[in-house]
Design a protein that fits this description.
This protein is of the alpha+beta class. It has one domain. It contains 3 helices and 2 strands, in the order H-H-E-E-H. The chain has a two-stranded antiparallel ribbon with strand order 1-2. A hairpin with a 2-residue loop joins strand 1 and strand 2. The longest helix is centred in the last third of the chain and has 27 residues. The radius of gyration is 15 Å and the shape is extended.
Length: 73
């Protein structure tokens, strides 16, 4: 995969959701420190992937609430 496409794919939140699921499914013994994605910016562990997803959820909820308040006001 070209480097520029690796950057695009690694910034996609779906990548951070799918790779941990794939890793857990394929490995019976796993810990939060296991590397699940070798991204161009560095290795992503299972714990950091879950943290990034949680942060994405929080930002999405905050952003959505702001839009709904403007639209319904």
């Amino acid at each position: 995969m070209p480097t520029w496409l690796q950057w695009v794919a690694s910034c996609n939140p779906l990548t951070h959701a799918i790779e941990p699921i794939r890793y857990i499914y394929a490995h019976a013994d796993w810990t939060l420190t296991d590397v699940v994605l070798a991204a161009p910016y560095g290795d992503l562990t299972l714990g950091s992937a879950l943290g990034l997803l949680a942060g994405f959820v929080v930002l999405s909820v905050i952003f959505t609430q702001g839009i709904l308040r403007k639209g319904l006001a």
